[in-house]
Amino acid sequence: MAVDVASLVAQAREGRPRAVARLISLVEGASPQLREVMAALAPRCGRAYVVGLTGSPGVGKSTSTSALVTAYRQRGKRVGILAVDPSSPFSGGALLGDRVRMNDHASDPGVYIRSMATRGHLGGLAWAAPQAIRVLDAAGCDVILVETVGVGQSEVEIAAQADTSVVLLAPGMGDGIQAAKAGILEIGDVYVVNKADRDGADATVRELNHMLGLGEARKPGDWRPPVVKTVAARGEGVDEVVAALEKHHGWMEEHGVLAERRAARAAGEIESIAVTALRERMGELSGDKRLPALAERVLSGALDPYTAADELIQSLTEG
Ligand SMILES: Nc1nc2c(ncn2[C@@H]2O[C@H](COP(=O)(O)OP(=O)(O)OP(=O)(O)O)[C@@H](O)[C@H]2O)c(=O)[nH]1
Ligand SMILES: [Mg+2]
């Protein structure tokens, strides 16, 4: 169903939650009207600070996200929450809703909560998450918290969408080894050892600090990811997490890293949209004469497959 994009965008820019929700649904549904939406939103984007939260299932991401929302609300910030599930197919967000433990904030007009499933999307997470972030950004969110739901094989992808990446761990046997395995020691800007009310939190902090210090040739001025202990369920340590985030934000601005990361993100976004568009045009080729004609020429030896592919790409992009 076609929607009145102009009025929806105007309402979203005023921060109307229902309009924001509708726009994110357009993203999730890969609506053909997205072009128009994104063009209208573009001048309003680029102000929000995007924080990604990743970690193993059950480590306390949702609880921490909720605690961070409380902390940012106390500081007068408008907050957007995007819960991304890369392992579930498009569900309209309904299925995910109950997994996001955000009831405390559901009635706060300064908080937007959306969940989004991305499996089965052309372009998947790399394409959908940045578009949803744009919507929340244009709606006036100061901070956007992006939480991954489900098994975290997309941790690196989420990290690529954020200005700052928070990696959560909990005390317990083999955590450090798991961390190294998952490659998360490379992606965290801030590490949080949650569930510090449990035994072994200090050991996990020590182990993490040790591993983060290994094999590093940091120059003066380089960022050293801090390790913060929290009991998210009781809000303990959350102010320290906010302080670490602010410090990282400031450091990135000072060293030009924020601009660099955002430029890389925009480049990745353009790439995934372009690849998706090309793939769609490829998909539309069935029944088209171009591909079989090229195949004939390759078969007969008149053409090599690389040159044939070049010709195909050219004909696809020419219209
Ligand atoms: N003891 C203790 N339990 C906690 C703490 N933080 C969260 N929990 C509990 O841990 C469980 C999982 O927390 P969630 O916040 O849902 O974890 P999650 O990482 O979002 O989980 P998924 O989204 O399913 O991957 C819940 O029962 C929380 O109440 C904490 O600091 N201490
Ligand atoms: Mg969760």
From TrEMBL:
Gene3D superfamilies: P-loop containing nucleotide triphosphate hydrolases. It comes from the Bacteria. Keywords: Chaperone, GTP-binding, Hydrolase, Nucleotide-binding. GO terms for molecular function: GTP binding; GTPase activity. PANTHER family: LAO_AO TRANSPORT SYSTEM ATPASE (PTHR43087:SF1), LYSINE/ARGININE/ORNITHINE TRANSPORT SYSTEM KINASE (PTHR43087). NCBIfam families: lao. This is Methylmalonyl Co-A mutase-associated GTPase MeaB. The lineage of its organism: Bacteria, Bacillati, Actinomycetota, Actinomycetes, Kitasatosporales. The gene is meaB.
